[in-house]
Amino acid sequence: MTNCVLCKEELKPEEGQLIWRGDDCRVILVNDPDLPGFCRVIWNHHVAEMTDLSHGEREHLMSLVFAVEEAVRHVMCPDKVNIAALGNMVPHIHWHVIPRYQDDAFFPGSAWSKRTQEVKEAVLETRRQKALELPGAVRAAIATLF
Fold first, then answer.
1. How far apart are CA 114 and CA 144, in angstroms?
2. Could you tell me whether strands 94-100 and 25-30 are parallel, antiparallel, or unpaired per DSSP bridges?
3. Shortest CA distance to 94 belongs to which of 105, 102, 86, 103?
4. Number of domains the chain contains
5. What is the mean pLDDT of the chain?
6. Is residue 98 part of a domain?
7. pLDDT tens, residue by residue, 31-85
8. Residue-wise over 69-92: b if at least 16 C-beta within 10 A, else e?
9. With contact defined as beta carbons under 8 Å apart, do 78 and 99 qualify?
10. What is the pLDDT, as a whole number, of residue 109?
11. Domain residue limits at 61
12. In CATH, what number is assigned to the domain containing residue 81?
């Protein structure tokens, strides 16, 4: 599908950083200034629903989602991790793995909610520095799967 933003191969720097790619999936560290450590696990082929995948493909994808969650928890030390697969705006299988904190800009709502509070820049900068460790941690977590 040519107009799908998740089908394109190249990322603009403002969109994020590719941190791992396999034959069927890839993991992106999303460039979200309010939510450092936000990752996205994307199925490489244009498929809209999880049930369009075979059972083995579903297991493979979810093992990657859980490996990313594990890395996010270890590196970012969040209060909670949100895992979401919506696809309302982009009907292409992808999972969001988002470290959440009680003091983040959207807490207690979703990452797509209206802001509820301002976060001190020093706090965000500390989290951004931690997020620099995520590519290595994600690749290490995924390496244990194969």
1. 38
2. unpaired
3. 86
4. 1
5. 93
6. yes
7. 999 999 999 999 999 999 999 999 999 999 999 999 999 999 999 999 999 999 9
8. bbbbbebbebeebbeeeeeeeeeb
9. yes
10. 95
11. 16-143
12. 3.30.428.10
pLDDT at 2: 62
47 torsion bin: left (phi>0), alpha (psi -120 to 50), beta (else): beta
DSSP per-residue codes, the chain? -TT-TTT-S---TTTEEEEEE-SSEEEEEE--TTSTT-EEEEESS----GGGS-HHHHHHHHHHHHHHHHHHHHHH--SEEEEE---SSS-S-EEEEEEE-TTSTTTTS-TTSPP-----HHHHHHHHHHHTTHHHHHHHHHHTT-
Residue that the structure tokens 């895992």 belong to: 83
Token duo for residue 73: 């928890």
Q: How far apart are CA 23 and CA 138, in angstroms?
A: 17
- Overall size of the chain counted in residues: 146
Which residues, 6 or more positions from 105, have their beta carbon under 8 angstroms from its beta carbon? 34, 35, 115, 116, 117, 118, 119
